[in-house]
Design brief:
Structural class: mainly alpha
Distance between the termini: 37 Å
Order of helices and strands: HHHHHHHHHHHHHHHHHHHHHH
Oligomer: single chain
């Protein structure tokens, strides 16, 4: 069978996505049609097998637990408290509120795992406060959209879990590998804010008055619960006390306990938390099953194998191939959402990347950085539309202009990761996860 003959079904998939069809449904429909035409009706039974296997997969149990953890904390004032603490501690720093937004996004990302949720939770507080204090709208929106992308890089990350399942890569290793690049991006985004304000002081108001020392220490009380939860979840994985799934259970219990102690766990709130967790988990399991079924169909047609042979056979060095792959991913990110890139593109490119000698864990972090760019790239960027929804009277032009500004530091992060892979691989190697 000629692999290129499957291209019409890729076109069908893109049409379905363009019409707003959910990624899991679009992937399943396109793959099922391809299986019927090229393989036979019997191949469709594999979809049922995959659905049952993933629904009963012990590793996937971490998904509803991490989602529950993020939903529980999202129902509390934790996001607002993180932003307040960052604002107080950075009060005398040029661009204190935008940089505080980045740090609060990083803190919330460590207990959330979702980019849109991080952007919505922090953005609903940070953007109005920055605009009230006199920051330029494009800076306020841009830094929040970019900071929100940390939700899919700093562990626990739902996107890294999906990548690990699709490529059969250790999720624990991926979690540990996300920490170094996550801190690197926090630094790069903060430096970008410094640079923008240095070039154009009109983007930010004058520095605020000094903050009383006692107020600074008081503000940290709100950070303590999150810090303890992060240490409990990541620390248990790092020390080998618990698997990633067991750590997720610890995180979910800790988040519910924090929400209860803060007085946020009312009956209607608990009902909403469980409802959102169930809906998101169901869609995630369906996405995993249809993504794996799509990979099965592609593999039967020989598309990943042919792509790998074609790429490996190119008369260019491996780093040249990786640059081309990065350019391709940046382009696709303008039209595909992050989950689509993971379930459609990764199964095709992954075999070639491995044959070129690159580390699967490293490639997972690289792809995650790419889908971070996709999250703030028009016309599809999810974080841009999330901010338009949660911030009243927001102008889409300001949101898009702001998001595009912060594409540059993300590209710099990709370049650094390609030149120095140990930024991502240092911790997994040190923990002997590699």
């Amino acid at each position: 069978m000629e692999p290129l003959s499957f291209l019409p079904f890729f076109a069908l998939l893109l049409v379905l996505l363009a019409t707003g069809t959910p990624v899991a449904v679009a992937t399943g429909l396109a793959a099922s049609l391809g299986a019927l035409v090229f393989i036979g009706q019997g191949a469709l039974t594999q979809l049922g097998v995959l659905l049952f296997a993933q629904a009963s997969n012990f590793v996937l149990l971490m998904v509803p637990l991490f989602i529950l953890m993020g939903e529980a904390l999202g129902a509390t004032r934790i996001g607002r408290d993180l932003f307040t603490a960052a604002q107080i501690w950075l009060g005398r720093v040029p661009g204190a509120l935008p940089i505080g937004t980045i740090f609060s996004c990083a803190g919330f990302a460590a207990v959330c795992g979702s980019s849109p949720v991080t952007a919505a939770t922090i953005g609903s507080v940070a953007v109005p406060e920055m605009m009230r204090k006199g920051y330029a709208p494009r800076l306020a929106f841009g830094v929040t959209a970019a900071g929100g992308t940390l939700g899919i890089l700093i562990p626990p990350s739902v996107s890294l879990i999906l990548y690990g399942i699709i490529t059969e890569t250790s999720i624990g290793a991926l979690f540990m590998a996300g920490i170094g690049p996550g801190l690197m991006l926090v630094t790069l985004l903060s430096l970008t804010v410094f640079y923008l304000i240095w070039r154009n002081p009109g983007l930010a108001p004058a520095r605020s008055a000094p903050i009383d020392t006692s107020e600074r220490w008081t503000s940290l009380k709100s950070v303590i619960p999150v810090s303890l939860l992060v240490v409990a979840v990541l620390g248990s994985i790092y020390t080998g006390i618990a698997t990633a799934t067991e750590a997720a259970a610890v995180g979910a219990f800790g988040a519910l306990l924090i929400a209860f102690l803060l007085g946020s766990l009312k009956r209607e709130v608990m009902r909403r938390i469980l409802d959102n967790t169930a809906r998101t988990t169901a869609m995630f399991v369906l996405l995993v099953a249809t993504g794996l079924f799509s990979a099965f169909v592609l593999s039967r047609l020989g598309i990943p194998q042919a792509t790998a042979q074609a790429i490996v056979g190119l008369d260019v060095p491996p780093w040249g191939v990786m640059i081309a792959i990065n350019v391709l991913l940046v382009g696709l990110g303008m039209f595909l959402d992050p989950m689509s890139i993971l379930v459609i593109v990764v199964p095709v490119l992954f075999p070639a990347v491995v044959q070129l000698g690159y580390d699967p864990v490293w490639f997972g972090i690289l792809v995650t950085l790419q889908i971070e760019i996709a999250a703030i790239s028009p016309p599809v960027g999810f974080n841009l539309f999330v901010l338009r929804t949660v911030v009243a009277d927001a102008r889409m032009a300001d949101i898009i202009r702001g998001g595009l500004i912060f594409v540059a530091p993300l590209l710099v992060g990709i370049a650094i990761l390609m030149i120095w892979p140990d930024v991502a691989l240092f911790l997994p190697r040190m923990m002997d996860l590699k």
